[in-house]
Amino acid sequence: MYDWAHTLSDYIEGITHSVCTLEFEVHRPLYNWILEALELSEPRPHQYEFARLNLTYSVMSKRKLIQLVNEKLVSGWDDPRMLTISGLRRRGVTASALRAFAYNIGITKYPSMTDIAVLEHTMRGELNRIATRRLAVLRPVKVVLTNYPEGKIEELDAINNPEDSSAGTRKIPFSRELYIERDDFMETPPPKYFRLRPGGEVRLKYAYIIKCDEAVKDAAGNVTELRCTVDLDSKSGGPTAGRKVKGTIHWVSAAQAIDAEVRLYDRLFSVPEPDAAGDFKSFINPDSLEVVTAKCEAALAKAHPQERYQFERLGYFALDPDTTPEKQVWNRTITLRDTWAKEAKRS
After folding, report:
1. Measured distance CA(40)–CA(12) in Å, rounded
2. Do 124 and 272 belong together in one domain?
């Protein structure tokens, strides 16, 4: 009955190319026989078969996807970790990136597994070209510039998209108190660590060079604040900006920063082929979602859901539908670099 319905519905609906996966190849003689036996007039549909797209670190079977949804291992069909159209859309993947990916991998009749890194590479290429740049700090630690005037707010120029000269620049506020990433400071750093350290210097992107003088800690020994001095003659783009330091980090001004929930999505499974051995659900990546409260550049208060953003040095992000006027929610679409490839080399 399925073969009968398949053939006739294709004909009635005027389908010219009935594109099926490989398991339908043995059904094609019956498909053609029905068309001949009923003496249906031309044009008749033709069935073509191709190998289904399979991606590493994922499952594509609807039967398995519905298990993930029904057992609440994901939040729904549009969970950004799911490789459903609704999940990819919510994550911030563009339709043009998916089309480019499909075009580049082509069509084959050989059952194979495509490395998900190919899709991620396509996403990065697309987003690097179109994404608006903004500053955000995911795991903030406060920096106080002890020699910068209290109450002073300076406006600095920042580039909106270095890949698009027509995108122009914007103004970002700079003040005595800032936030930087907690990972951008280490008390006892390893070799070739070019970010902030006690007595060390870094450049704040679009701004000045600062030097760390003191790390303030709480009773448990955790760093809660960094006291630094700023080289006021080192302003980016200024006449005396020639002094060089090896590290450049991002930041936001504390007084003007807005809080936002940021959902850091990663691959749903921790092994390349979760279908290959045992229960695929046992290979769910426990680190596939981390939620943080970030400090974001004030300009992001006017962000648009349709627009894609690069949080500089961090990755590409899109507004989630859960966003309200009182609270922004951001989804990480993809990191700037393939961290999984680095981990694979280590192991």
Report:
1. 10
2. yes
- Among 44-48, 103-107, 204-208, the least confident range: 103-107
Residue 37: burial class (beta carbons within 10 Å; 0-12, 13-18, 19+): exposed
Q: 120, 280 in Cβ contact below 8 A?
A: no
Looking at the fold, whether 86 and 126 belong to one and the same domain comes out as yes
In a domain, residue 18? The reply is yes
285 and 347 in a single domain? The answer is yes
List beta partners, residue 280: none
Per the structure block, which two tokens stand in for 166?
């027509």
* pLDDT of 93 higher than 80: yes
Counting the structural domains of the chain, the total is 3
Sign of the dihedral defined by the CA atoms of residues 33, 38, 39, 40, in that order = negative
144 and 201 belong to one structural domain: yes
- Measured distance CA(210)–CA(229) in Å, rounded: 6
Beta strands of the chain (E only): which ranges?
17-21, 46-50, 132-134, 136-137, 140-145, 154-159, 169-174, 177-181, 201-204, 209-217, 223-231, 248-249, 252-253, 258-265, 289-296, 309-311, 315-319, 328-335
Is residue 56 included in any domain, yes or no? no
Pair 342, 274: CB distance under 8 Å: no
Is residue 243 classed as helix, strand or coil in its secondary structure?
Answer: coil
Domain containing 154 equals 136-250
Tens of pLDDT, residue by residue over 37-70, are 999 999 999 999 999 889 999 999 899 999 999 9
Strand-pairing partners, residue 155, are: 173
What is the tens place of the pLDDT at every residue in 256-302? 999 999 999 999 999 999 988 789 999 999 999 999 999 999 999 99
pTM: 0.89
The pLDDT of residue 112: 86
**Domain of residue 112, CATH code:** 2.40.240.10
Tokens of 247: 């590290």
How much is the average pLDDT of 4-32? Answer: 95
Residues 246, 138: contact at Cβ < 8 Å?
no
